[in-house]
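Quality-control log, excerpt.
Job 1 of 2 completed; input and output follow.
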Amino acid sequence: MPVGNETAEKIAEHLLQIKAIKLQPAQPFTWASGWKSPIYCDNRIALSYPKVRTYIRQALVKMIEEEFGKPDVIAGVATAAIAQGALVAEAMGLPFVYVRSSPKDHGRANLIEGELKEGQSIVVIEDLISTGGSSLKAVKALRDAGSRVTGLISVFTYGFSKAEDNFNKENCKAISLCDYETLIAKAVEANYITAADLHTLRAWREKPEIWGK
C-alpha cells in the first residue's frame, strides 16, 4: 500500500510525465520471477530529472522518519535502488551500504558493499516491488550480517498479495510511495492509456502469474 494518497498521486504523475511507464501488450516484458507483464515501470529514468529525483528523495526521507524513525544505516538494493538509497542517506546524514544480487566473483567476493556493524538498525530502499523476492533476499543478507532491518520502503509497488504474504512471512514491514492502482487511475485521467490497454492491464492484474502464457 502507498503511504499517502497525495504523495502516491504526485509520484504517479511524475512517472507518467517522464515516460517511465512502458506499455507493450503485444511484446510483454519478462520479470526475474518469470512472470509476463504488459507494463514496465522504470523508475531509474527519474534520476535524469532533477526535480522528480528530488521529490522522490524528499518523500522517501519523510516516510522513513514517520514510519521507522532514524535508522543507523540506509541500504539500497542493487542495482536500481543504489542511487536512490545513496541520495536518501546523504540527505539524512547516514552511512550507506548496498546489497548485490549475488556475491562478486572476484576480490573479496562481497554480497554487501560498505561497512556494517553488528546490531545496527537499517532501513532498506527498493526501486519497486513485484513479488518481493529480490527485496527479501537483500533483507536476509543484511540480517545474516547481524543487522537489524526495521523495514523496507520502495518507490513503487504493484501491490500483489503474493508480495504482501512474502513480507509478512519474513516479518518485514514494507511500504511504498506509490502503487499500481494509483498509477493506472492517473494514466486514465491523463489519456496515457486507451480503453483496450486498460482492459489488458486489468486482466493481467487479476492473474499475473498466468497472464501471457
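Job 2 of 2 completed; input and output follow.
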Amino acid sequence: MADYEALKARVDELAARAWDVTAIEARVKKMVKGGIPKKKRDPKEMLTNKEQILDRVQRQGEEYNFIAHNCPKGTALAVMEEFGLGNMEIITALSPFPGFGGTGWMCGGVTGGLIALGLYFGSDDVLDDEATGATILAARQFMPRFEEEVGSVLCPSIQENVIFGRYMDPAASPENMEAFAKAQGFEKCSLVPGIGARLAAEIIIESFA
C-alpha cells in the first residue's frame, strides 16, 4: 500500500531541490547528438550493485522529467541510458504521452516504464511471440508494483492524493499549464518518473538472477 506521507515528503524534497540544469542538459544534449551509448551488461555486476543502479536510475528519471517537462520521456530515457537501449527517436515518439495524450488517463511514469521494458524484453522480429510474451510478463510485474508504490496508475489520482491535493489538468488550457508550472509541477511531478524508472530497472535486473 502506498505510503502517502513518505511520498509527499519526497515531493517536498523535489520542490526544494537545487537542480543542476547545466549538467542535466549536457547529458541530454550528448545523447541527442551521439545517440544512446550501447552497453555490454554484466549480470553479476548489476545484481551486486543493484541498489546503486536503482538509485541512479531513479535520480535520472527525476532529472530528465524536470528538464524535458515530460514524464514518459524522463522515465524511459533514464532506463534506456542505463541499459543502452533504443534510440532518441523513441523519446521523440513519447512526446504526446504525458497524462496519456493530456487526457488525464495513464501516468507517464507508467507509459515510459512500459516502453523501456518493451525495449529490453522485446524483439525486432514482430513474429517473435516468445519475446512478446516476455514483455507482457514484465508489464504484469510492473503495473501492480507501480500502483502499490504510488497508489494509482492514473494521473488525476496521483496529482490529487500525492502531489498537489487536487488534479491540475495542465493540458486543458494555457492557464492550467501556467498554474501547474507556478505550483512547481515539473519539479514535484518528477517523483513519478523516478519511481517508474526505478521499478522498470528493478524488473530488468531481477531477470538476471
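Post-run check on job 2. The radius of gyration is 16 Å.
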